[in-house]
Amino acid sequence: MTDDEATSRRDDEAAAETEQDTGPATAVPDPAEIRRIGLANALREVTAPLHRRAEKAGVISDIVRGRSSRAAYTLLLRNLHAVYEAIERGLERHRDTPAVRLIVRPEIYRADAIARDVETLCGSAAAARAVPLLPEGRAYAAAVAESAEGDGIRLIGHAYTRYLGDLSGGQTVSQVLAKTLGLDVGMRNLYRFAGIDGLEAYKDDYRAAIDRAAFETDRPDAILAEAMLAFRLNIALFWAVQEAAGGAAARTPEPAPAE
Ligand code: HEM
């Protein structure tokens, strides 16, 4: 792909997202309606168009199509590490706060798992520290930290977006990474939830907790809006990682076949 094509594709992406942001599909229901349909269902509904975009964005699209590289994936992880640190710091701070306390789940915290993955992928702690935090990763982590201010309920939108994603499509991504980049288990801790028997039952329980949270705040609509923001921050990060890592691995010349 030429630079012009890449720019035009990104413009299309931005235009499509603007369309969806203003369209009825992503209109945020009012608090009574959210409680009636369930906050978890409402989250799934309002973020569905953004989920489709996220699957096709930058480095995630490359990974799914087997066109990424270890360097790009490592860069993604390093940036997500900052995000999970902010989410988990916020959750700990709010472990006794109404609504948020319902989704404080240390057993699924991911920051330590990601730190281990980055170090294994880099080969040493020093090399891991040299992987840069991109402006988009910094902005995402800052938005999470900001959402933890006050009653912290917007953190629920961030936790939903990342943890349910890791527990769902993340499991497929893990298999793709093993197959296409040869990542062994020590590099895929992000997707391993040791100590949880049955991810489906766990996800159901997590969704039920999210539903209950809507009854402990008068602003469940703010959680929906924050989840939409979280998806957009992910999408921006996925494109930025692809760009910083030099685009899809397929765009770099293949090594010459051995004679
Ligand atoms: C790599 C591409 C991806 C694939 C193939 C994928 C696939 C899926 C699938 C099949 C589900 C449904 C699971 C179920 O109903 O139990 C799901 C759910 C979910 N995914 Fe993804 N996903 C991808 C990327 C992402 C990304 C990048 C994010 C967020 C940044 C994300 C966030 C979520 C969330 C929050 C849910 C839970 C939806 C709900 O039940 O409310 N996914 N994903």
| Euclidean distance between termini CA atoms | 28 Å
- Give the tally of structural domains: 1
Q: Uncertain spans, ≥5 residues at pLDDT below 50?
A: 1-9, 14-24, 250-259
Please work out how many helical segments DSSP would assign.
Answer: 12
Q: Give the total of beta strands.
A: 0
Give your account of this protein's structure:
By secondary structure, the protein is an all-alpha fold. α3 packs parallel to α12, α4 packs across α12 and α5 crosses α9. The protein is globular, with a radius of gyration of 19 Å. The site of protoporphyrin IX containing FE has 19 residues, from α3, α4, α9, α10 and α12.
Summed up, what is this model?
The protein has 259 residues and is mainly α. It has helices at residues 3-22, 31-37, 39-55, 58-64, 70-93, 111-122, 125-129, 135-147, 155-167, 169-181, 199-213, 220-244.
What's the helix and strand layout?
Layout: H1 3-22, H2 31-37, H3 39-55, H4 58-64, H5 70-93, H6 111-122, H7 125-129, H8 135-147, H9 155-167, H10 169-181, H11 199-213, H12 220-244
Helix pairs in contact: 2-3, 3-12, 4-12, 5-6, 5-8, 5-9, 5-12, 8-12, 9-11, 9-12
The structure holds protoporphyrin IX containing FE.
